[in-house]
C-alpha cells in the first residue's frame, strides 16, 4: 500500500520544479503514477497492476527488482559504494572480464561509463583519435543520446535543438524497408514475414543495393575519404524498431573500412540477448564492429554504460588521459555482473526469441485484420507495430489517433511505447522475463484497442 505524496502534489511539483522538457515525455493524457515493480509487472499508487511491455525503454532487462540482482546490489552496498578507478577493486575487474567473454574476438577491452550518451561520446572520440579522421555517419531516424556530442549523431527532430551541436556528423538514408523508398519482405532480417510485397528478384535484394548506392553517394557528397566512424543501431529503437535489408550492414561496414573508418554498433537497446537469436544485435547481421556501445539493459535500470573495443583501438586512448568519477562504480559493476549471470541462468535470450516470435506471429494476424496496422516487425523482444492511415498510402496514423489507442491499451493494464519519426510506431520491448500468457494478454488488449478505435471512426 502506498502512503506517500498525493498525485496532485506530484503533478504540482512536476509543473513547478521539474524541467518542462521532462513533462513532454509524460506520454499519457492521464499520467501513470508508478510506485513499485516486480519482474514484468508495475503497480501504480492506487494498487492497479500493469503489464510493462516497455521496460523503461528496453532498460529493465531481467525484470523489475529481480531478486538475484537486488541481492547482489545489497551485498555490494553494504561493502563499498564508491571508490575511483585509480584504485584496483574486484567488482570492476570481475565485470570487465565477464562482459568481454560475452563478445566475439577481437572485442576484448572494456571502458565503463554511466549512460548510453556517454558511451557514444567516447566512441566518437576514440574513433577520431584512432583514425585521425573527423567525419561520422549515422542513419536518418537514429537515436544515440542527449549529450551535445551525441545529439549531433541523432536524426530525429524531436530530440534536436536549434543550437549548434557537434560538428562533423552526417546522416545517411536509413535502409527502412517499410517506410523507406525501397523495400520488401524478405529484405528484412526477421523471424516472421511481415509484409507481402517485395521488390527483390531471384533472391537478390535490390533494396539493399539501392540503399548501399545511397551510402556511396553520402561518402561522395559529404565525407570524401575522411571518415572516422559509421554508427548503426542493429535495429533502430527510438526510430521505431526499423530493420535493415539483409547484408546491408555487412556491405556498409566494408565500404566504411575501405575508407579508413571504424564501424560502431550501438547496442544500447538491442544488447544482452533482447533480439533472441543472439546476445548482440550485430551478430544477426554477420558483422563484427570495431566498437560496441551499450547501456540500458546492461544493469537492469541501474545507471551504467560501456564501450567494448579491440586492444589496438583502445590503445589510441593513451593519447589522452580520460577520467570518469562514476564509470565502473562498485555497485553498478556488481549489478551488471549479476545481470549477465541472470540472463544466462534464467534463459532470457531464448525466452526473448520464443515469446517475441510468438508475439509477432499473433500481432501479424491483427495486421491482416485491420487496415490501420501497417507493419509488424522486429526480432526477439525488440518489436515495432507501425500504424498507418491505410495500407495503400502507408501514411502515418495521426498522433491523435495513436494517442487514443495508446491510452486505451494503458487503461486496459498494459504499458507500451511509441516511436518512429512521426510517432507512428508502437514499441514493445518488455523485461525479457515476459511469458507466452503475457503476450496473449497483450494481443487481446491491442485487438480491443484497435477495434475500439475503428468503431469510433465509423460512428
Ligand atoms: N543509444 C540508443 C540506441 C538509445 O536508445 C539511447 C537511449 N534511448 C541512447 C543511446 C542514450 O542512452 P542514455 O539515455 O543512457 O544516455
Automatic annotation (TrEMBL):
Quaternary context: Homotetramer.
First-tier enzyme category under EC: transferase
Record field: catalytic activity: N(omega),N(omega)-dimethyl-L-arginine + pyruvate = 5-(3,3-dimethylguanidino)-2-oxopentanoate + L-alanine; 3-oxopropanoate + L-alanine = beta-alanine + pyruvate; N(omega),N(omega)-dimethyl-L-arginine + 2-oxobutanoate = 5-(3,3-dimethylguanidino)-2-oxopentanoate + (2S)-2-aminobutanoate; N(omega),N('omega)-dimethyl-L-arginine + pyruvate = 5-(3,3'-dimethylguanidino)-2-oxopentanoate + L-alanine
Job description of the protein: Multifunctional aminotransferase with a broad substrate specificity. Catalyzes the conversion of glyoxylate to glycine using alanine as the amino donor. Catalyzes metabolism of not L- but the D-isomer of D-beta-aminoisobutyric acid to generate 2-methyl-3-oxopropanoate and alanine. Catalyzes the transfer of the amino group from beta-alanine to pyruvate to yield L-alanine and 3-oxopropanoate. Can metabolize NG-monomethyl-L-arginine (NMMA), asymmetric NG,NG-dimethyl-L-arginine (ADMA) and symmetric NG,N'G-dimethyl-L-arginine (SDMA).
**Molecular functions (GO terms):** (R)-3-amino-2-methylpropionate-pyruvate transaminase activity; alanine-glyoxylate transaminase activity; beta-alanine:pyruvate transaminase activity; pyridoxal phosphate binding
Annotated family: Belongs to the class-III pyridoxal-phosphate-dependent aminotransferase family.
Q: Which residues form the signal peptide?
A: none
Please provide the record's keywords in A-Z order. Answer: Aminotransferase, Mitochondrion, Pyridoxal phosphate, Transferase, Transit peptide
Q: Which Gene3D superfamilies match?
A: Aspartate Aminotransferase, domain 1 (3.90.1150.10), Type I PLP-dependent aspartate aminotransferase-like (Major domain) (3.40.640.10)
Name the record gives this protein? Alanine--glyoxylate aminotransferase 2, mitochondrial
Q: Which cofactors go with this protein?
A: pyridoxal 5'-phosphate
Q: Predominant location of this chain? A: mitochondrion
Q: Look up the record and report any one GO term of the cellular component aspect.
A: mitochondrion
- GO terms under biological process: glyoxylate catabolic process; L-alanine catabolic process, by transamination
**Protein localization:** Mitochondrion
Q: Does the keyword Mitochondrion apply?
A: yes
Domain of life of the organism encoding this protein: Eukaryota
Report the EC number(s), separated by commas if there are several: 2.6.1.18, 2.6.1.40, 2.6.1.44
Is Nucleus one of the keywords?
Answer: no
